[in-house]
Amino acid sequence: MAWARAANNLTPLGVNGYKGTNIHTIIAFHLTLFHRWQSLSKVEKVTVGIWLLVAMLMVIKSIANPSGSTVSDEYLLGATRWLARDDLYSGPVGFLYLPQFAFLYSVYSPLPLWASEALWRITQLLVMLYGLVAFARLMKRPGENSFVPLLTVAVICISTASFRNGQANIMMLGLLLLSTVALVHKQWNRGALFMTLGLIVKPTFIVYYLLAGVLNRPLYWRLPVGLLVALLIPMLFQGSTYVLEQHQNFIVMLEEAVCYGESGEKLTWAHFFAIFPQVAGFSVAPVVQQLTRLVMALLTLVVAWYTSRKYPRDMAGYYIYALATCYLMLFNPRNETNDYALLSVAIGYWVAVSKHRFHDFKYHLFCWFFVVGFVASKYIVKLTPGMWAWWKPVMAVFFTIFLLQRLFSQAKNRSVNHTR
Predict the structure, then answer these.
(1) What is the mean pLDDT of residues 17-30?
(2) Range of 197's domain?
(3) Which end of the chain is more exposed for a tag (fewer CB within 10 A), N or C?
């Protein structure tokens, strides 16, 4: 290229005092970006444009109405209390995260409200996109079209409210995907790092954390080390007494939050047991909920172990992520409708693979049923005014059944070497 040849002919001092090698590096970097852009298909370029539009809309929303349609005020409250060394928790509502999250979010607190809202959303978006692209590359076979465009459609359709509200679901989704990719590639240190960050970003990450942790022996010592480091770093800023006290308060808050979720008092919970008070008018006893969660947790572990033995690492990684997320959606007593953003990539995978690998239009159309079903939730629940959250757990049940059917049928009909 003419630009590359010109860069090679630069004098040692280059232009404007910069060394020629630095100018060559800068030009080569821009050429690489240009070539990558040129190598994208039209659909992929449109996908890039869509994500740029999403980022722009989030920034505009943050500037125009920083205090509306947001949950970041709870994160900011936790960060403010952290900096003031106040108690982070006020019962089963409000700030429901680990003290480490308040510590991390405190970097946003000095900023103007609109700037903190925008920067937080962009940070989440970048982490999620990093995970999305890495996951798409992992699951794509040679010669297949990129999975990113169809995954993008599924994520945006199912996760719109989380993007608008700035909910930590978006970052948690990215960390779930990054953890999955790292573990598939046996990058144990990276995997432990992403899993520790996921637990900090949202405590409900614990489902994947435990499931993947049990199934991967190299994590047995790495995860405890990660937790220890996560515990010690905040102590450098606020002292051990305050940090340990807040962890004790977190445990108390967590018990109260679980009891509040099990009680069924709030008709906007979106887990399996919340279907009954919203649709049938009766609540399931907390002890029954607890026993069911325990039994289903053990069954999920057994199925995940079976998957790890029957499938190659990439497909096993997908199923472990999907199983953990399905369990979380159905049996987290504090699950809400926007939390289903975590399931979007698990669903989007089948939309992509049915088109690019199976080439089966009817099957592809069937996979779209799950995306459309979640999008249609806000209209379907209007059939039951005042009870707004029962349809998404119903869809999660349907998807879980579909997932298990695919898991066992593929394991039976294909050899390990040819199953993806």
Answers:
(1) 61
(2) 40-418
(3) N
My answer on whether 16 and 81 are in the same domain is no
- What distance in Å separates the CA atoms of residue 122 and residue 114, rounded to the nearest whole number? 12
Q: How many domains is the chain partitioned into structurally?
A: 2
| Distance in angstroms (rounded) separating the CA atoms of residues 169 and 125 | 11
Residues 70 and 118 in one domain: yes
The average confidence (pLDDT) of the chain is: 89
d(C-alpha 204, C-alpha 219), whole Å? 19
pLDDT reported for residue 277: 87
Evaluate if pTM is beyond 0.85.
yes
Tell me the C-alpha distance between 13 and 39, whole Å: 34
Burial of 413 (0-12, 13-18, 19+ CB in 10 A): exposed
**389: its two tokens:** 């959250």
- Region for residue 375 given its phi and psi (left: phi exceeds 0; alpha: psi -120 to 50; beta: otherwise): alpha
**Pair 47, 149: CB distance under 8 Å:** yes
Tokens describing residue 245: 């006290």
Does 49 lie in the same domain as 20?
Answer: no
Statement to judge: residues 158 and 79 lie in one domain: yes
Residues 135 and 254 in one domain: yes
Which residues touch 319 (CB under 8 Å, ≥6 apart)? 304, 307, 311, 403, 407
In terms of domains, do 1 and 137 share one?
A: no
**Dist. CA 278–CA 256, nearest whole Å:** 22
- Alpha-carbon distance of 51 to 411, in angstroms, equals 36
Judge if 141 and 29 occupy the same domain.
no
pLDDT in tens, 106-151: 999 999 999 999 999 999 999 999 999 999 999 999 999 999 999 9
Instruction: Report whether 138 contacts 184 (CB < 8 A).
Output: yes
